[in-house]
């Protein structure tokens, strides 16, 4: 008995993979049904639906990049402290000292790539008319995922706390100040400030809510850190699960009727 | 002159050497392909000869870059090209106009430019243009910024994706016209996901991982000085994917450019499946069956989103002034901005002068022309469109759907309209009520 065979016949192996290797038709079906990760997929699928020139694999790539971001992100969290005292220097150390410093590069380029692939995925879905019935609502979920991807990238942009970071966020968050009704420089906020009560001030408006302060400071760093590492990823994971589930329920990848 | 090109260092030349080497390899493969296609030497020179010559030139260029010192280096763009190029092309008007012409060409000439040969020549032209431009210091500064490299990559990938989709759409449109089955309907057997899909995915993941690691080693993530709230950089730019929105700030106040318009973009995107009543074109590439939907989407995505990001990233320098691609980002460049409100046009045109005062009625009177225009645009125009040009849409969509649809189209048009008004009449605000931060 060869070593490989010995391992494959051991009780441990068999307890993990409950069937022989997927080399024949039957086991290729079984593997799709019993493996947790593979059960995202159907057992069989139309050939044109998985053609690279049809889907460009862009949704899949986006998902893969999300996983890469999650893994590299966790590694980065081991090194990074979100305080004014340390944030910048921890990132600098990742560049100059830490062995796994390249995680930062992969995380940053992966994030840029994810923004690009999510656009291209939407582009493909539009051009193949795949948002048409019965897939309307999955398109809506997709748009939410698009927004969240941009927000993930935006909140992450602040964390290195260098000039690039704080000014990009300053420019971006200045928009919140102009929110109609809810920002101190937005049209209509005066309706809340009548008869002596000042409801909307620069310490209570939309920008303040976003930044946790009047300007980009320690509270902002904390807020963005939690949004970036905890809150948004959880929501994205949930929506992605629904997105995938619905692809199956809507009849798989779109096809000519 | 001792040093004609002070900015060309040997590391830049080596980099470009690799660039041309890759370009050579790409064309070498193409030459072989072309040679195969030529078949028998029937009449005249085989086509492959031309490609072979071009490839050899690329190879020699590559060798020249690897071996020659930067002093007196010959292959670079001459000032005589760069200066006029910057002078005549460096303004947002022409830029926007060209993107619109580009979109028109993309659609109207789709049968022509999607041919492999034509598109390969276009690809070569853009890569050569890029390579030659990289010999310019200022171009390198901006294109080579680590955070900007992905945008350049995106442009090429986007072009490739657009090419695939148009090519398949042209093919399918022809099939439909001839009554043949669609491309997606041929060879469309069911296959097992293991192995057909899972191996594709596996290979995809391995390649992507390799790309990311290579990218991470080749290009360091940027880290500037520690953040300081007193030293404002000029220009201060938002993250690159929001630069289209930042560019809109030139034409609209933040409440529109930064809050209302983005919300409408997102709401509009979500509404797409519910307002597109066309049942054709579901699950395959086509242009003819969905020409209106696709044209509208491309208009929003290419000139109004991607091109504005490129504009905001590569062409906007200090004080958000427009700079040519070879131009030095001079902080002191001044651009005269003498913009006038619609109310001033109107009341001064009547010879009366602006109504003065800060009371509610005076303000409303002063801005009445603009307010009426805006109300007319969003409230009177849709019904008029519904009973005239867009009558068929109105009939098929019903009232509510049509109102949402026409308002979304009008919102989309508001940016180009404001751009044109600004360029043609130096118009600042259509409605300008700074007292309430309400400027349109
Ligand atoms: C985090 C972001 C996203 C992930 C991970 C994701 C993932 C995927 C995957 C893996 C597929 C399978 C087919 C394919 O790969 O093309 C898919 C299909 C689909 N996606 Fe997404 N997607 C995302 C965002 C979006 C966005 C932004 C939209 C549109 C606005 C969208 C709309 C759709 C639709 C309608 C389908 C079904 C397409 C069909 O059946 O042909 N998704 N998505």
Overview of the structural elements:
The complex is a heterodimer of chains A (257) and B (440). Chain A is 61% helix and 1% strand. Chain A is an all-alpha fold. Chain A has 2 domains: 1-44, no CATH class; 45-249, Up-down Bundle (Cytochrome Bc1 Complex, Chain C), CATH 1.20.810. In chain A, helix 5 packs antiparallel against helix 7 (102-127) and helix 8 (136-158) packs across helix 9 (163-174). Chain A is globular and about 85 Å long. The mean pLDDT of chain A is 92. With 440 residues, chain B is an all-alpha fold. Chain B folds into 3 domains: 1-75; 77-223 and 284-320, no CATH class; 342-439, no CATH class. Helix content of chain B is 65%, strand content 2%. In chain B, a hairpin with a 4-residue loop joins strand 2 and strand 3 (438-439). The longest helix of chain B is centred in the middle third of the chain and has 30 residues, at 149-178. Residues 1-5 of chain B have low confidence and may be disordered. At the A-B interface, helix 3, strand 1, helix 4, helix 5 and helix 6 of A face helix 8, strand 1, helix 9, helix 11 and helix 12 of B. Strand 1 (44-46) of chain A pairs antiparallel with strand 1 of chain B, so a sheet runs across the interface. The complex binds protoporphyrin IX containing FE (HEM). The site of protoporphyrin IX containing FE has 27 residues of chain A, from helix 5, helix 7, helix 8 and helix 11.
